[in-house]
Structure formats: C-alpha cells, structure tokens
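Hello,

Our lab assistant flagged a job as stuck in the queue for most of the afternoon. It eventually completed. Since we weren't sure the result was trustworthy after the delay, we are filing this so someone can double-check. Below is the sequence as submitted and the structure that was eventually returned. Let us know if re-running is recommended.
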Amino acid sequence: MNLPSLFSGGRLALAIAAVAAATTAVAYAYWTTTATAGSKGAAAAATVNQGATPSVSVTAIGREVSLSWGASTLSNGAPVSAYLINRYPSGGGAATISPIGTCSGTVAATNCSEDDVPPGTWAYTVTPIVGSWRGTQSSSSGVTTIGAATLTVNGSPFGNAAFTPATANATGAISGFSGVGSGGHGENVAYRLDSSTALTGSPTFVGTNGTATITSLAIPKNAGDGAHTIYTLGDAAYNPSQASAAIVIDTAAPSASAQLSPTANAAGWNNTSPVSVALSANDGSGSGIDQIKYTTDGSDPTTSGTAQVYTGTPFNISTQGTTTVKYYASDVAGNASAVQTQLVTIDTTPPSNGLSLTNVGGGLYPTTGPLSDGTTVYYRGVAAGSFTVRNAVADALSGPASSASSPLAGSATGWSHTSSLVTTPSGGPYVSNSFNWSARDGHRPRRRRQLRQQFPQLRQRLHTAGGRLRRRERARRQRRSLLELDHAQHRLQQGQRLRLRPRHLGSAAAARLGRAFVCRWDEQRQLRRVRKLRPSRRERSQLAVRRQRGRRYRERSLLPVRVRRL
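-- returned structure --
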C-alpha cells in the first residue's frame, strides 16, 4: 500500500472542502473515504442542503408554540443528523429560543414545542446540521402571536358599602399565563396591591391553558380612597408572567349643590318669575358622578315616585310662594350624598301700605288714618309743628320687611325731613323720621295759597258777592223788625199793655216802639218764634262758592225781641 498517495489524496480532499467552505455561503461540505480494504483509497465531497421552512401554531397550553418541518438531506441524499431552531421578533432582532420545551439545543426530530414563549409576534427558522457542519438556515415561518397576560378585577370602584367592614371581596379572571408549571398545572400566582402589599386571593395557580377564574380577592379599605393597581405575578422558569388591573376605592360620598338664577335677596325671596334652578355635584378624586335626582314637591328623592333624574339642563320654578326642591347625588361606586333642600320663594305681588299720621304737633289736618294714596295733608304754619308717618305694611307671601320715606321734592321752604329706611320692629308697623315745618312758612295751607295765586280774579268776585249778601241780609232784618213793631203797635191800640226789650232793631224802629208795652203771655210766645230767612237761588250759589274757599258760612236769622213776663 502506497501511504504517501493516500495522504496526498487526503490532502487534496481537505483542500477541496476548504475551498468550498470559503467560496460558497449557502452550503457546507465534508469528505469521507470511499476506498475498500486492499485498495489504494479514495475521497468524495458533499454539501448540506438548506433547511425546510417550518410551520408554527399556538397550542392549547398557555404560551406554547408548536413547530414542524420537512426533513433535510445532504447533496448526496444522505440525511442530516439534527436541526437547530431559532425564534426571531417579527420586526427584526436577535435570535433566541426558550429553554423550556423541546425546541432548545439540537433537535433530532422534525417537530418540537417551545414553552414559556414571551408575549409578542414571532417568526421561526430551522437550520439542518451534520456533526459540526451546518446547512443553510430555512426561510422564516409565518408570524405567530403570543398575547400578553391579562387580569380582570370585578367590583371596581369599591364604594363604602362594599367593605364588610375592613375588606371588600373582589372577583375576576387571569389569562395569558404559562401553562407549564409544577404539579400538573400552569404557573403559580401571587397577588399584590400597588406592587408592595400582598393580597390574599384564590386560586393560587393557573391551569395548563394559562387561565384562571378569581373567586376571591380581599381588597383592604385602609389602602385609602383613590386609584390603585392590582398585580398578579407568575413563577414560570424562563419568562414569568405578570398582569395588572386598575381599581378605584371610593368610600366618600359626593357633594351636591343648587344654584338659583336670578339669585334671591338677603331674605331668600325672588320678586321675578320664573326662577331657574341648576344642580351640580362633585366627587373629587373618587369614581365620578353617576346621577343627580330631585323632586319639586318636597318629597324624598331617594324613594319618591315623583323623583326625576337631572339631565344637566336647569329647570324653572314659577309658582308663587315657597317651592321645596329636594335633591341628592350618587357616584359610580354607589355612595350617595345626603338629601339637600333648596327653597325657591317667589313673591311678585307688591305689599300694601296702611298710612297714618302719628306724633302730631302743631296744626295739621287730617290727624287720623288711614290715609289713602294721594291724600293731601294740610298744616297751619303760624306755629312750628311736626308729624311722623306710620306705615302698617301688609304682605301675604314674603311678609313686611321695611318702609322707606324719600327726601322732600320740589320747593320745601321751611320744611325739613331726613329720608329713612325703617326695618324695625320685625313685621312692622314702621314709623318714619319726623316731618318738620317752621313758623315762617305762613298761616294758610299751601293748597289755598296756590289757589289764590292761580285764580286772582275769583278771590275778588267772591269778596264782592259776600258783601252784597251781607247787605241784603241786613235790609231783611230791618224789614222784619218794622213788621214786629207794627204788630206791637196794633196790640197797643187794642188796649193791651206790653213791656218789651227790643233787640237787633234799627235805631228808627227802637224810637218808634218806645220803652214799655204790655202784652199777654200767649202773644209773648208768638213773638219768640224764630223763622230763618231762606236765601234766594243767586244767594245760595254765592254761599256755595264761599264754602269752596274753605270758609264756613252759617246763615244767621233775625233774633226776635226777648220778652220778659211782668
């Protein structure tokens, strides 16, 4: 056997393999001896073909991916010895593989399963290998998605009524955890509040499908009101699962308020109608307002059949008097505010005044009340005086509140008054500041003075008519006296004696009568009878004019002689 030739041939084969490896990026080669016993020896070269593209799918086991692919061979048809599996992010990145499952290391079979696959979107490749030689990596598989782990907590927000008394029991669900764990189930699970406070919950592990139904989870009340986060933590060997859920603890009731437009006065009354009522509520950092309910008949809105849900649009009240609006607010957590009351009081009817004069000093007319609107008050200005105005205000709805007097208007010479706003006693009657006048303001009522100024000719006419009337009356008296004198003389001629004392007779009549007459007792009675003179129509008209000027005229009849019995 020629050993150098064999080695020479061996060196040639190695050289060819080295060239193939250096010049071809998609194929790897190796050499083998093909000589038989007793021959001079021989060598042959072969390449490893590219791996087949795998098919991938997510199994029913939580976070597990199953792969399968076609077998790979050498260029000479010889089978490869194993395969190398790689997982890549679908968007590009470094290759990796989970050590959990059957896809790590070299895989002799044409299928495998990877467990504890992290959440994300992935693509897989297969690389055939022969010993230390590797073939070309396969094309990427289709993209497969592993969903993120999720946690659902029911019952949030947790209101005050949910705690009994220190904890509130919550339920929920877990999904997306690894289904490979110890004891024939998936990952073990621990519960945390805000990542630091351990919570007691059940169950403590997930099933092989990576899901679990939470039957109890104790939420502590002392965690305080506000937003919190519940965490569930798995214990998978390669990539432990973690999920979280936000909750709200809200044990405080919201506040509710009402606003009126227009706003009421200081006494709580509106003198316009209608009045608009707007309701609002505030829950601070709690769960938020659920609804506001109200009634306008004074009934309890939490139980009344007339309660209405406030829609956010103000409603109007136009009923005279007092309307009782009751309302309350509730939040999403079920906390309810106390029932609030808003009185809407409307009075659009003005009050009535009952005026009279009090504390009167000096000449004043009228002196008694009540005084109607527009009444003229007369005063006598020869002496100073004063008075106050008493107002008995009446109002059926809101009731009396005050009475005011304004400053004097126009020409107020000799007068003084300080305007007043009187509020005491409560409900009245109210007495104003005093009205005062001085003595220099004249002795006649201002209204009569104005009458004389406006009608100067009327005054002269009235004076003339009065003088004429007085002269006529004096003439009638004289004629009556003469008639009585003639009657007495006739009795005297009949031989009767009279003793008369003449009165209201003219000087001529008294001289004719003489001093002493004698008459009978029955004649004396006739002489004492008085008959008033009836003025003519013209005289009556003149008397009416004089009465309009404020002077009272009383008709004076002729008084007969006073007869004294002898």
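-- support follow-up --
The delay was a queue issue, not a problem with the job. The result is valid. Residues 14 and 200 are 68 Å apart (CA to CA). The longest strand covers residues 120-130.
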